[in-house]
Amino acid sequence: MSWDNNGLRDDFVVPPMPTAPPPGPADPWRAVAVGLLNLSGLGLGYALVRQWGLMVACWAATAILLLVALPADPNGVPGAMVVLYLIVLLLAAAHGAYVGLRTRLTWPPKAPIAAVLGLVLLAVPVGGAVLYDQARDEAVEQMLLERLGRADKLVNASAEKPFETSEADFRRALAVYQGLTNDHPDSRAAERVPDRLKNFYTTVAFPYAEESYCAAVPPLKYLRTVPRTMSKKELGALSTWPDDRLATSLYECGATSLGGGSADWTQQFTELLSTFPKSEQAGKVEPAVKAEIGKAVKSVGGGDPCAAVKRLENLGAEARRLPVEQAGLADAIDKDADRADRSASSGTYNCGVDQYQDGSFSEAVTTMKAFAKDNPGHRNRARAQKIAIAAEVAQTVPAAGKRLPTTASGGSISVTVKNDSPDNITVLYTGPVTGSFTLAACGSCTTYSTLTSTLIGFEPCSDTSKNYPQRTIRLPVGTTYFVHKSQDADGKTPASDTAKLSSGYIYTECAYTTSFGY
Question: Contact 495/514 with Cβ under 8 angstroms?
Fold first, then answer.
């Protein structure tokens, strides 16, 4: 070791400079400031401690979040993304606080000022979250408005279609309105639902506005079910809006069917009386039925009395089935039904006459016999019995039905009818007078074969050894048609004869029966 003239050592070596400034004294305010500044998501804490790479990493994390979040979506940012970003912010804040504890700031000169600045800049993420929530809320509002608009299009597109084809669309639209009201009551879309419901009701009930009352019944019945899914508070006056319109439609549809002769009127009136028994429309049912019965009564004397009688029978039966008790119409309806029954019964005579004149002799027989049985005191009963006899004769001898028989009886010509048959015989005759009587069986007589009765020389009632049951009647001059038919056996053909009676003669008529065979 050597010393120089000044007494200093000449082998002294200067130590090397440190690679970085020595850490400063710990400063909690600085740590808080850097941590708070990093919580802004902009990496400003790292900028103040010159950690440029970490600052860029904070920017990248924030940029990724913005790319995912914007534009605002009704569903918001995925929860995992938010959690991951918060973790990044917390790590950046913690790490920044650790670094800032002993690292001097480039600016501002005092750590408390930086901490205050960090607090102020926290408004960036908080404000961003608030703005994003507002944007998301608006996106939700727009989504709900679009949903409302689609429902409106469904309703408007179905405006003039038959309800059967558009019912499904109406139900879908109503489900949207209901969902908006229940799930998003504070939304702008929900605020518009009441007006949409008014349009919904008037659109569904479009046939009513067009006075297509039968077509209006199904949609109005559907509208009455809406309060089952939406509260009356939400519907307001709409909850009872369809009632009067449905009652009107049921009445008008029923009245139209009643006047048109359709049987559907009972269904409409039954529903009206059951659903709205105290309504003004229900009170119109009995007068409508009464008026229709009156029209049918007048028709009995018209061109188609049989149809009028059938109409009266149906009206009487259908009127009795109406549920009129709650409406207080029971007594009036019973009187109307009784009138229909009486008129139908008495009108059967007109029907029988019409059938006879049309040549429907079999139907005329049935109708006139029923009339005579059901109307023992009727003034036309005696003639109805005559017409039934004449119609029965005309079934075998059509010429006998050319004119309607009268109630005349007797005459100047004596006609003796004998029974050459083993059966009890009913003898029917018509012409200037009409009548019938029975002859007892001839015990020693037989039924002739059809072939035998057509042979030349065939003369029934000519065996002088037989005591033929007989009866003598008096008839006027003219042509009288006879038919004699067995009362005891089936399969035997009635025999017939046409007698042209003239004055000054005594006639003998032979009754006999034939059957197929030899």
Answer: yes
* Residue pointed to by tokens 């679009």: 146
In degrees to the nearest 10, what's the CA dihedral of 253, 256, 258, 262?
Answer: -90
User: Tokens for 199?
Assistant: 């349009």
Give the whole-angstrom CA distance, residue 55 versus residue 34.
12
Q: In what order do the strands lie in the sheet with 448-449?
A: 435-439, 425-430, 478-486, 493-501, 513-515, 448-449
505 closest CA partner among 475, 483, 480: 475
With H, G, I as helix, E, B as strand and everything else as coil, classify residue 357. helix
Stated pTM of the model: 0.70
H or E segment at 70? none
496 — phi, psi (to 5°)? Answer: -140, 160
Cis peptide before 376 (omega within 30 of 0): no
Cβ within 8 Å of residue 58, ≥6 positions away: 38, 41, 42, 43, 46, 88, 92
Taking every pair of C-alpha atoms in the chain, what is the biggest distance, in angstroms?
206
pLDDT digits (tens, 9 = 90+) for 483-506: 988 887 665 778 888 999 999 888
* CATH assignment, 399-515: 2.60.40.10
pLDDT digits (tens, 9 = 90+) for 324-358: 999 999 999 999 999 999 999 989 999 999 999 99
